[in-house]
Amino acid sequence: MRHRLAAAAIRTEVPLPLAFADGYRVEGRVISFTGLIDGREHIAVALGAVDAARDPLVRIHSECLTGDVLGSERCDCGPQLREAVERIAEVGGHLLYLRQEGRGIGLSAKLDAYALQDAGLDTYEANEALGFEADARDYTVAVQMLRALGLERVSLLSNNPDKAAQLERLGIRVVEQVPTAVHRSPANARYLATKAARGAHRFAPIAPPRP
């Protein structure tokens, strides 16, 4: 049953050539929206050619300035973003980039949480010690965006079962949850182990993106 939710609409769609530091390049189209319930400027990037006979591959990626832009190895966000772009481009689908830094707590609070992690807390404990939920992300806007794109069924590129559960509760059919690669480094090993233990993230050791 389609869940009742305020409708969003596509505001602008323009070509967006993408180029990554490792030399990978791909043509995409960036899409902005109106009517998103949180008032933030989330975007989608359409990649590849969608085959009408299969459900599009969708990655819902939460903004991570430190990982996506600065290349921080404290998390796996940057490598996951890079991987997602290539994998979606190969089969057709969308990257949804949501402006909810630090699992929804914001950039400054995330850096405060990093300081607490350096003092011994794990990534979830640090958020809670600051008075936040362990994971405050809400994917309602992602559902609005998917519907504005005309999508009601998706293959979801994610290790996080909460993403799939939230989409399903709001009426988007997740026909398959596809795991990302494990982007482990000495700096993020504890972080990944905590996501698996406390967040029930499901990791599968598949090949990383090609250079």
TrEMBL record:
EC code: 3.5.4.25
Location of the active site: 135, 137
SUPFAM superfamilies, A to Z: RibA-like
Pfam families per record: GTP_cyclohydro2
Key words of the record: GTP-binding, Hydrolase, Metal-binding, Nucleotide-binding, Riboflavin biosynthesis, Zinc
Cofactor: Zn(2+)
Residues that, per the record, bind Zn(2+): 64, 75, 77
Binding annotation for GTP: 59-63, 80, 101-103, 123, 158, 163
Textual note on the cofactor: Binds 1 zinc ion per subunit.
The UniProt record lists the keyword Cell membrane: no
Catalytic activity: GTP + 4 H2O = 2,5-diamino-6-hydroxy-4-(5-phosphoribosylamino)-pyrimidine + formate + 2 phosphate + 3 H(+)
Keyword Cell wall biogenesis/degradation among record annotations: no
Domain annotation GTP cyclohydrolase II: ranges: 28-179
Pathways per UniProt: Cofactor biosynthesis; riboflavin biosynthesis; 5-amino-6-(D-ribitylamino)uracil from GTP: step 1/4
Its job: Catalyzes the conversion of GTP to 2,5-diamino-6-ribosylamino-4(3H)-pyrimidinone 5'-phosphate (DARP), formate and pyrophosphate.
Family in the record: Belongs to the GTP cyclohydrolase II family.
HAMAP family referenced in this protein's UniProt entry, alphabetically: RibA
Protein name from the UniProt record: GTP cyclohydrolase-2
Organism: Janibacter terrae
Source organism phylogeny: Bacteria, Bacillati, Actinomycetota, Actinomycetes, Micrococcales
